[in-house]
Amino acid sequence: MKYFILAFCAILRGGDAADPTEWDNNHSFISSPLSHPLDFSHLPSQKQTSTPDVTYVNLAAYELEDKGCVPLLTRLIPHHHTLEHLDLSLNRLGKEAAPHLTTLTDRALKLRYLDLRLNQFSGNSLVPVLKNLERHNKIKYLDLSFNSIDSTGIDALCDLTRIATSLQHLSLDFIGVSKNKRLDLLKSLGKSPSLSHVSLAYNLLAGSGREIGQMIKSGETLTTLGLARCDLTLDDFKHIIQAVNTPLPKSRKSILSTIVQPKTRRITLKLEKTWETELIAAHYAQHKLETPQITLLFHLGPS
């Protein structure tokens, strides 16, 4: 039943998955020479002195097994100097593939797009990968949804979001954020210097309304926040609305300058469509400020 639910959720998210051309319109992708993930004949061995450039590798939903993917990741390592886009989503990669993925991300200094959603990574297996991404500071798009990430992994995510100045899109749906790590994660997301899209769908965040509201206020670049099926209560949403309706503290410069009005930030909340979310959207419409510094836009999807 659990795997049926995961598969069903993945199908629902398929329509919302970002098109690679959307996250960076200035980037041109080069197709990988791979015709099939288990066919390595097109990839030169490490003994060859010259290798063709591999910039874009898309192996989503190829039913790759954990051990079976190791030779493929090993073959990709010589192409680290050109690799920018790697999609391994909707496979069955886990602890066997993790060390080789760590080696690849350690050397792939230009990697900007990494999609690992709906695999079988668990515990702290992705911590070295996250540390590599933090050190290189080139990643723009990262999706770890539907993998089980422990407290050590959350700590590594917190470091990445606070430090990475390139990260724009981060999806963390159904990663099992523990109750004692919610606050740390939300604070770190609010301190990100670059994040515009964050998704935390299918994580149990009940009772975190105040912290989510503070994250929205603090995240100066944030434009979209996914909170579908997070078990949030009406009180949580009221706390979020109260937080965004509270004027941001004025700096000394803004107090002295009365001519230029601050630009209103618009943030889209992606939620499931239920009577509760429709009610809270109506409540916000009635209580939002006339000249808000932050405006919430409610995007209500299928329940």
Automatic annotation (TrEMBL):
InterPro entries: Leu-rich_rpt, LRR-containing, LRR_dom_sf
SUPFAM superfamilies: RNI-like (SSF52047)
Domain of life: Bacteria
One Pfam family hit: LRR_6
Protein name, per record: Leucine Rich repeats (2 copies)
